[in-house]
C-alpha cells in the first residue's frame, strides 16, 4: 500500500475540508432557497387570492393583441370564456355595446402608441352593468414594450351612488344659491366669519348699514357693524359663541344712517365653517315695549280707579291683578290674594264670603266657569247674590290664554229699571185714563202714541191710529167732526210748529156736535210733540155765567160805594144838627142846665163825635177799596204827628187805668205823605190797643228809623190775639161778620193798613196769647 506524503495528505485534507464545507454550504443554501420558494409560493397564492377578490379584474394586452385576463371578466361580459385577443373584446359580439367597444379599441391603441393612461366607462350588451376600464402602459415585468394593463371595475353600484351624490350635490348647490339669495335679500344685516373670526361674507343690508361701497370693500377693510359694548368686541363675542358652542344673543348700540339704534346681535357657531351672525333692529321694538309697559301701567291705574271690580288671571289660571272695588265687592282680604291664588281658589274664597249665587252643585258650576279660559268668545252672566246685589259678570279670554273678569254692580240700575218699569206702567195707565185727549207726534209728523180719550174724541177707527198716520192724513180723515172743517189746517200747523220749529202753540176748536176743545202743541225734549185737547164746553158755560155774575157784582159794588158815600153825607147832616144843638145847650143858650142834664148833653156830644169818626172811617175805607182815597203829599214830621195822637188818646187811656208811654228817637225824622192820614193810622192802632187792653196794662208808642225808612211801633202787654183770629184782623168783611156774631166790631186795623199802604208802606202785626201785641208801621222816606 502506497502511503501518501505529508504534503499530499495536507492537500487532500484541505480538499476534503473544502468539499465538506461546500456540501454544508450547498445544503444551507438549498434549505434557504427552499424556504424562500415556499414563501414566494405562499405569497403568490395570497396575491392570486387577493387579485381574485379585488374589485377590479386585470387584463394584460400584449403588443401583438394577445390578452391575459381574469376568468370573472367573461361573467361580467356575459361570455362563456375570456377573449384571447383585443379584436375579440372590441368586436361587435365581444360583449360590449358597439359604441363602447369602438371607444375602448381607440383608447387601447392610443395607450400602446403614446403610452398614456385613460379611464372609460363601458356597458355590456343588453346589460345594466356598468364597467369602468382604467388603462395604463404595462411595466417591463408584465409585457414587452407596447403592452397595456387594463383594470376593469364593476362600477354599477358606485356609479349609481355617484349619480345620487351628484343629484344631492346639485340640490345642495341650488339650496346654497337660494340661501345666498335669501341672505342677500334679507332686510337686516347678515355676515359670516372665518374660523379666525375675520369677515368673509356680508349681505347688502350690512353694506348699507355701515355706509360701504360694496361687500368686497367692507370685507377687505374689516368694517364692523356694531361697536365695542361692555368691553366686548364683535370678534370676542364670536369667539365666545365658538367656545360655548351655542348662539350668543346680545343687545348692543349701533349707528345706522346717522342715528343711534339698538340692535339685537346673534352669533351662531358653524363648527369648522366659522361663525355666522345677523343683527335685527330692535329700536322700534324697544320703544314699543316701553310704550307697552307705560300703557300697561296706565291701564292698571285706570282699572284700579274703576268703580267696577276687575280681576285678571294668567294662562296658569293664577290671579295676576285685581283692583280695590274687586276686594270690596266680594269681601276678600288683601293677604289672601298676594300669593296669586288659582281661579278655583278665588271662587272658593268668594263662596266663603257668601258673595256668590247659591248653587246646588257648586263644583260643577265652578268647573263650567273654569271653561271660560278656553272659550273663543267673551261670556256674560248676571249674578244675584244672597243680599240682593245684582252683578253683571263679563269674562273676556285674553290672547295669552289668561282671563279678564269685570264685575259691575248693577243693583241700583236694576232697582231704577224696576222703578222705571213701574213708572212706565203707571204712566201708561195714567195716560190712558186722563180726562184730556192726548197724542204724541214724532218729528216727521206721525202719530206715535195716543190715549183712549184721543180716539173717542176724534172718533177715529183703531186701525187708522194703529197705522201711525201722519197729521195730514189724520186730519183729512176726521175733519168732518169739526164745526169748521177748514180748522183742521190749524191743527196741522200747530203740530208742525211744535216738531219743526220747536214752538209751543195753543188754541181752541169747535166740533160739529157743539163741544168746544182747547188744544195745545208742546215740544218734547226728545224731538217729538205732545198734542193735548181738553173739553172746555162746560167751563166755557161756567165762565160765561161767572163773567155775568162778576159784572153784576161790580155793578152792585158800585151801587154799594155810591150808597155808602151818599149815606155818609146824608148821616152827617142830622149828626151836625144834633151836635150843634147839644153844643148850644152845653153853652147855656137854652138856659141853665142841671148837673144831670149837663151829663146828658156831654154824652150826646161824645156820641156824636164818636159817630162822626165812624162815618169818616167807613167813608175812608170805602174810598180806599176803590182806590179813590184822597192823599196830600208833603213833608211830615212823624214825631209831631205821633205826639199829637198820644195827647188826643191819653185821657181815654187814663180813664181806663192804662199807662200810655211814648219813646221817639231823633232817627224817626220825616217822610213824604199826608200827615192827617198817617195820624189817623196811628190813632187806629192806639185805639185798638186801648180797646182790648184791661186796667193796669201798658201801651208803648215807639218811633225810630234809618236813611231809607221810618218805623212806628205800637206795643202792649195785653191778652194777645189767638193765631186763628190774626188772619181776619185786616179783613173788613170778616170784622163785620164778627160784629154781627156778637164780637167787638171795628174796622180800625183794615183802615190803618189801607192808609199805610196808600203811602207805599207796610203794616205788620205780631201777637202771642198772654204776651201782648206789637203792630209795626214802616214808611219809606221818598
UniProtKB/TrEMBL annotation:
The terms describing its cellular component in GO are: plasma membrane
Key words of the record: Coiled coil, Kinase, Phosphoprotein, Transferase
Query: Which Pfam families does the UniProt record give?
Result: HATPase_c (PF02518), HisKA (PF00512), PAS_7 (PF12860)
The organism's superkingdom is given as Bacteria
List, alphabetically, the InterPro entries matched: HATPase_C_sf, HATPase_dom, His_kinase_dom, HisK_dim/P_dom, HisK_dim/P_sf, PAS, PAS-like_dom_sf, Sig_transdc_His_kin-like_C
Keyword Cell membrane assigned to the entry: answer is no
| SMART domains (UniProt xref) | HATPase_c, HisKA, PAS
Record EC number: 2.7.13.3
Protein name per UniProt: histidine kinase
Q: Please give the organism.
A: Sphingobium amiense
Amino acid at each position: 500500500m502506497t502511503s501518501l506524503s505529508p504534503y499530499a495528505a495536507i492537500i487532500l485534507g484541505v480538499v476534503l475540508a473544502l468539499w465538506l464545507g461546500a456540501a454544508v454550504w450547498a445544503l444551507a443554501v438549498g434549505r434557504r432557497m427552499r424556504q424562500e420558494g415556499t414563501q414566494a409560493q405562499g405569497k403568490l397564492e395570497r396575491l392570486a387570492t387577493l387579485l381574485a377578490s379585488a374589485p377590479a379584474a386585470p387584463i394584460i394586452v400584449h403588443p401583438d393583441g394577445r390578452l391575459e385576463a381574469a376568468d370573472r371578466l367573461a361573467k361580467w361580459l356575459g361570455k362563456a370564456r375570456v377573449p384571447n385577443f383585443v379584436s375579440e373584446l372590441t368586436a361587435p359580439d365581444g360583449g360590449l355595446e358597439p359604441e363602447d367597444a369602438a371607444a375602448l379599441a381607440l383608447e387601447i391603441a392610443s395607450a400602446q402608441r403614446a403610452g398614456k393612461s385613460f379611464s372609460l366607462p363601458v356597458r355590456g350588451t343588453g346589460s345594466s352593468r356598468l364597467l369602468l376600464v382604467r388603462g395604463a402602459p404595462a411595466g417591463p415585468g408584465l409585457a414587452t414594450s407596447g403592452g397595456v394593463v387594463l383594470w376593469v371595475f364593476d362600477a354599477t353600484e358606485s356609479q349609481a351612488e355617484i349619480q345620487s351624490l351628484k343629484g344631492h350635490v346639485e340640490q345642495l348647490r341650488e339650496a346654497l344659491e337660494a340661501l345666498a339669495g335669501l341672505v342677500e335679500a334679507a332686510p337686516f344685516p347678515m355676515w359670516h366669519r372665518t374660523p379666525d373670526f375675520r369677515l368673509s361674507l356680508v349681505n347688502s343690508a350690512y353694506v348699507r348699514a355701515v355706509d360701504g361701497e360694496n361687500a368686497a370693500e367692507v370685507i377687505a377693510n374689516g368694517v364692523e357693524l356694531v361697536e365695542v359694548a361692555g368691553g366686548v368686541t364683535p370678534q370676542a363675542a364670536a369667539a365666545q359663541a365658538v367656545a360655548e358652542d351655542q348662539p350668543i344673543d346680545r343687545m348692543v348700540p349701533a349707528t345706522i344712517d346717522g342715528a343711534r339704534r339698538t340692535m339685537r346681535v346673534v352669533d351662531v357657531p358653524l363648527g369648522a365653517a366659522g361663525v355666522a351672525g345677523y343683527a335685527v333692529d330692535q329700536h322700534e321694538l324697544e320703544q314699543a315695549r316701553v310704550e307697552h309697559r307705560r300703557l300697561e301701567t296706565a291701564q292698571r291705574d285706570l282699572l284700579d280707579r274703576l268703580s267696577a271690580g276687575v280681576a285678571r288671571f294668567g294662562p296658569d289660571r293664577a290671579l295676576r291683578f285685581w283692583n280695590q272695588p274687586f276686594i270690596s265687592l266680594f269681601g276678600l282680604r288683601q293677604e289672601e290674594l298676594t300669593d296669586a291664588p288659582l281661579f278655583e281658589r278665588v271662587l272658593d274664597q268668594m263662596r266663603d264670603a257668601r258673595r256668590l249665587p247659591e248653587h246646588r252643585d257648586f263644583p260643577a258650576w265652578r268647573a263650567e266657569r273654569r271653561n271660560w279660559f278656553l272659550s273663543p268668545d267673551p261670556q256674560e252672566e248676571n249674578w244675584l247674590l244672597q243680599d240682593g246685589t245684582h252683578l253683571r259678570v263679563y269674562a273676556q279670554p285674553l290672547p295669552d290664554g289668561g282671563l279678564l273678569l269685570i264685575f259691575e254692580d248693577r243693583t241700583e240700575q236694576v232697582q231704577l229699571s224696576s222703578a222705571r218699569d213701574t213708572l212706565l206702567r203707571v204712566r201708561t195707565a195714567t195716560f190712558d185714563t186722563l180726562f184730556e185727549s192726548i197724542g204724541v207726534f214724532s218729528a216727521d209728523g206721525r202719530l206715535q202714541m195716543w190715549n183712549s180719550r184721543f180716539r173717542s174724541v176724534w172718533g177715529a177707527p183703531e186701525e187708522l191710529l194703529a197705522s201711525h198716520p201722519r197729521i195730514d192724513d189724520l186730519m183729512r180723515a176726521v175733519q168732518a167732526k169739526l164745526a169748521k172743517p177748514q180748522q183742521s189746517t190749524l191743527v196741522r200747523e200747530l203740530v208742525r210748529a211744535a216738531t219743526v220749529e220747536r214752538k209751543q202753540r195753543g188754541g181752541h176748536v169747535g166740533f160739529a156736535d157743539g163741544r168746544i176743545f182747547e188744544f195745545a202743541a208742546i215740544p218734547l225734549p226728545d224731538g217729538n210733540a205732545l198734542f193735548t185737547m181738553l173739553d172746555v164746553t162746560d167751563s166755557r158755560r161756567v165762565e160765561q155765567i161767572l163773567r155775568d155774575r162778576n159784572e153784576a157784582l161790580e155793578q152792585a159794588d158800585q151801587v154799594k160805594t155810591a150808597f155808602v158815600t151818599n149815606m155818609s153825607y146824608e148821616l152827617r147832616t142830622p149828626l151836625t144838627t144834633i151836635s150843634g144843638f147839644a153844643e148850644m145847650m152845653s153853652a147855656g143858650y137854652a138856659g141853665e142846665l142841671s148837673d144831670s142834664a149837663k151829663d146828658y148833653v156831654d154824652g150826646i156830644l161824645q156820641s156824636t163825635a164818636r159817630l162822626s169818626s165812624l162815618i169818616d172811617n167807613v167813608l175812608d175805607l170805602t174810598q180806599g177799596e176803590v182806590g179813590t182815597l184822597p192823599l196830600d203829599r208833603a213833608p211830615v214830621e212823624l214825631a209831631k204827628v205821633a205826639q199829637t195822637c198820644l195827647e188826643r188818646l191819653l185821657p181815654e187811656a187814663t180813664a181806663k187805668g192804662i199807662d200810655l208811654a211814648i219813646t221817639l228817637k231823633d232817627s224817626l225824622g220825616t217822610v213824604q205823605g199826608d200827615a192827617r192820614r198817617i195820624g189817623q193810622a196811628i190813632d187806629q192802632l192806639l185805639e185798638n190797643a186801648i180797646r182790648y187792653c184791661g186796667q193796669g196794662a201798658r201801651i208803648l208808642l215807639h218811633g225810630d228809623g234809618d236813611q231809607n225808612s221810618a218805623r212806628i211801633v205800637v206795643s202792649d202787654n195785653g191778652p194777645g190775639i189767638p193765631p186763628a183770629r190774626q188772619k181776619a184782623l185786616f179783613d173788613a168783611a170778616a170784622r163785620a161778620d164778627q160784629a154781627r156774631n156778637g164780637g167787638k166790631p171795628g174796622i180800625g186795623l183794615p183802615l190803618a193798613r189801607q192808609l199805610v199802604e196808600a203811602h207805599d208802606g207796610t203794616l205788620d202785626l205780631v201777637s202771642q196769647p198772654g204776651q201782648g201785641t206789637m203792630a209795626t208801621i214802616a214808611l219809606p222816606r221818598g
